[in-house]
Design a protein that fits this description.
The protein is an alpha/beta fold. The protein is built from 9 helices and 13 strands.
């Protein structure tokens, strides 16, 4: 199992995005009523994973268009809340330089995860949860239109008592990639467990912004269900403590693990 972190630039956000306790205002993560000069810069990552003979991209990061025409690409609302800071060379497409991708696995469809899909051919299958696709269409102020225009393959979840919320999927039927439905940060967010040779790693999307999230129980700003997020962070903490866990990878972790 090989996991390569691809940083597709940065985003300027309120400090309430990784930790909502830094502000009392519930919508502080949007940047409203805050000086832009006080925003923090967090990395925007996706991951190139080789496991069980599969070559996968988990999330897609920022598109080339986020470097060339950020305001036009995102629209004012998303640009205001999550301004991209990047060079076109940092887009995942350009960093991968034509390396094979069998599928793209989406943890969720927020703009800084789905933007880069526009740089990849439609022939590459893209997996997402049914709940997330429906939520992205409903919650337009949060998602904008970037999540549209792609034919997503819906992850066929089944009941699984070992899953944090009772739904999981052995994505390729060989135990190498397990998807867990986690209605936390968004209605249909997904954690992916990559397993090979008796070891596993978790790619948790925005279910945590760094190890502090699950070790200290820090809630992010954007939330679908706060209680679910608390339960999910506790589950991640238990998984991270397992001696078979090789690592937990977050999309915005300032540390490369």
């Amino acid at each position: 199992m090989e996991i390569e972190t691809i940083r597709t630039g940065w985003t300027l956000v309120s400090s309430a995005v990784p930790n909502r306790s830094t502000h009392r205002f519930g919508l502080a993560y949007t940047g409203l009523f805050q000086r832009r000069s006080r925003r923090i810069k967090v990395p925007v990552k996706c991951f190139y994973v080789q496991v069980g003979g599969h070559r996968l991209l988990v999330d897609a990061g920022w598109s080339v268009q986020a470097a060339d025409h950020p305001l036009r690409h995102l629209g004012f609302g998303l640009w205001f809340a999550s301004e991209p800071v990047m060079d076109a060379s940092e887009a995942a497409r350009n960093q991968l330089k034509g390396r094979p991708i069998d599928a793209i696995l989406m943890t969720h469809l927020d703009c800084d995860h789905v933007s880069g899909l526009q740089d990849f051919p439609d022939e590459i299958p893209v997996y997402a949860s049914k709940a997330e696709v429906a939520y992205a269409r409903k919650a337009r102020p949060r998602y904008g239109s970037l999540a549209e225009g792609r034919d997503y393959r819906q992850i066929p979840f089944v009941d699984d008592a070992s899953a944090p919320f009772g739904k999981a999927c052995d994505l390729f039927g060989d135990g190498s990639v397990t998807a867990y439905l986690t209605p936390t940060h968004s209605a249909g967010s997904v954690i992916y467990k990559m397993a090979e040779g008796g070891r596993f790693s978790l790619l948790v999307g925005d279910n945590g912004y760094s190890a502090d999230s699950w070790e200290k129980g820090l809630l992010p700003g954007p939330l679908y269900d706060a209680n679910n997020m608390r339960a999910c962070l506790a589950w991640i903490r238990r998984q991270a403590a397992d001696e078979s866990c090789a690592g937990v990878y977050c999309a915005h972790d300032p540390v490369d693990r």
